[in-house]
């Protein structure tokens, strides 16, 4: 009888042990694809969150507690993102989630965060046309990436393009971005016959016929440029085929919104020299903040044996946006004295952080987006980028594009 009572007590104690442990930590959810077509881009963001958590913990954590990461793999499966978000919030009881890359994954989880009044920090450029109380968007809105990039292509310095190929992966971000860009091009006098629009599925690998079609479209007399919203591992065969068919930047420049240093890792960049990417950060930017960020990442990647990065550490724009987001969240928790969602949202307004880009990033007081500088870089032979254009300073995000007529009168702040 005594033995049974002891066993029962032990079993009861074991039931309460996880809860006791959880009370001593603040759980942080990490919701990035570690397998599937988006793993090429998202895996490194998981590691960026873990690095930032280690840094915060080394300084004593938050509110007297250490941060405890809870990592899940939604596996580039959009409905699974919602299931994993529910698990993080309801079962794991995380205080915040850092995650998603594609807009379809963000749209999948959005109802979960709104229904549970939980917080998501989303670190990737996107199409705008959304504003949620429960999301902080630390990547670029269209006026902080897509619009400046096309304006550059139309300028004398950018080649004075008169025809445009809008080429993307077939989902919400490329289609909505291209809807905005088509309306913008119309406002600049570009007619529909001078705009070619093409989409390929996730994981697409055969770009031979599409590149041939682009070459034919560009041979019709007007200077042509390609705007690429291809996402994930399809970028590797796309850029390889550009090289195979000899489509040089001097003939038809390609500006990409989802290709950075990480995506070019597996590509021979020499045939791609001069092609462009538009971001709010490049690894090649020289300043003390970026030098420190690169060193932190290099040391962390080597210490943790991170595949690819332990030998060739690379940083990129979504890593910077992730790093800004978690540090701003930590600052807001300290200011609020709590991880309560509504208190943290209030404390996030106006938060600033010296970003690796060298710019003091500011979270807008109302619209849950960062004020960000825009950079356009040319691909170099080593897979890095040479910055050829930048804005004079940070640009305030416009979540609702002014080029979409139905956006007229929409408020630039989320509903309470």
TrEMBL record:
Query: Has keyword Signal?
Result: yes
Alphabetized InterPro entries for the sequence: ABC_urea-bd_UrtA (IPR017777), Peripla_BP_I (IPR028082)
* Protein encoded by which gene: urtA
**UniProt-listed PANTHER family:** ALIPHATIC AMIDASE EXPRESSION-REGULATING PROTEIN, PTHR47628
Where is the segment annotated Disordered?
396-416
**One Pfam family, short name:** Peripla_BP_5
The answer to whether keyword Signal applies is: yes
Q: Which Gene3D superfamilies match?
A: 3.40.50.2300
What is the protein name stated in its UniProt record? Urea ABC transporter substrate-binding protein
Q: Which intervals carry biased composition (Basic and acidic residues)?
A: 407-416
Return the CDD domains for the record. Answer: PBP1_FmdD-like (cd06355)
Q: What UniProt keywords apply to this chain's record, in alphabetical order? A: Signal
Annotated membrane-spanning segments are: none
Q: Where is the signal peptide?
A: 1-22
């Amino acid at each position: 009888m005594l033995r049974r009572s002891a066993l029962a007590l032990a079993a009861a104690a074991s039931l309460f042990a996880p809860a006791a442990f959880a009370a001593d930590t603040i759980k942080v959810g990490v919701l990035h694809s570690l397998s599937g077509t988006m793993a090429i881009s998202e895996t490194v963001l998981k590691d960026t969150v873990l690095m930032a958590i280690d840094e915060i913990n080394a300084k004593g954590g938050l509110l007297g507690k250490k941060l405890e990461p809870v990592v899940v793999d939604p596996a580039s499966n959009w409905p699974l993102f919602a299931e994993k978000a529910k698990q993080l919030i309801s079962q794991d009881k995380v205080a915040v989630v850092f995650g998603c890359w594609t807009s379809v994954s963000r749209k999948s989880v959005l109802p979960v965060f709104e229904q549970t009044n939980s917080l998501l920090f989303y670190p990737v450029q996107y199409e705008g046309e959304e504003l949620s109380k429960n999301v902080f968007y630390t990547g670029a809105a269209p006026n902080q990436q897509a619009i400046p990039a096309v304006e550059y292509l139309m300028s004398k310095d950018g080649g004075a393009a008169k025809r445009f190929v809008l080429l993307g992966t077939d989902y919400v971000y490329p289609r909505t971005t291209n809807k905005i860009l088509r309306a913008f091009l119309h406002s600049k006098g570009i007619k529909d016959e001078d705009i070619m629009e093409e989409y390929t599925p996730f994981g697409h690998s055969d770009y031979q016929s599409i590149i041939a079609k682009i070459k034919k479209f560009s041979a019709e007399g007007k200077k042509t440029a390609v705007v690429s919203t291809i996402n994930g591992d399809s970028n590797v065969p796309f850029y390889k085929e550009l090289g195979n068919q000899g489509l040089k930047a001097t003939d038809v420049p390609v500006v990409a919104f989802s290709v950075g240093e990480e995506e070019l890792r597996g590509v021979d960049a020499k045939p791609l020299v001069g092609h462009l990417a538009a971001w709010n950060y490049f690894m090649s930017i020289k300043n003390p903040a970026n030098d420190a960020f690169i060193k932190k990442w290099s040391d962390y990647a080597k210490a943790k044996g991170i595949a690819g990065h332990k030998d060739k550490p690379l940083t990129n724009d979504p890593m910077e946006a992730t790093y800004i987001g978690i540090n701003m969240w930590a600052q807001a928790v300290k200011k609020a004295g709590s991880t309560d969602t509504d208190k943290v949202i209030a404390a996030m307004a106006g938060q600033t952080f010296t970003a690796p880009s060298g710019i003091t990033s500011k979270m807008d007081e109302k619209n849950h987006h960062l004020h960000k500088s825009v950079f356009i870089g040319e691909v170099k032979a080593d897979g890095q980028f040479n910055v050829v254009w930048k804005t004079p300073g940070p640009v305030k995000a416009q979540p609702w594009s002014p080029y979409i007529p139905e956006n007229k009168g929409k408020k630039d702040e989320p509903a309470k």
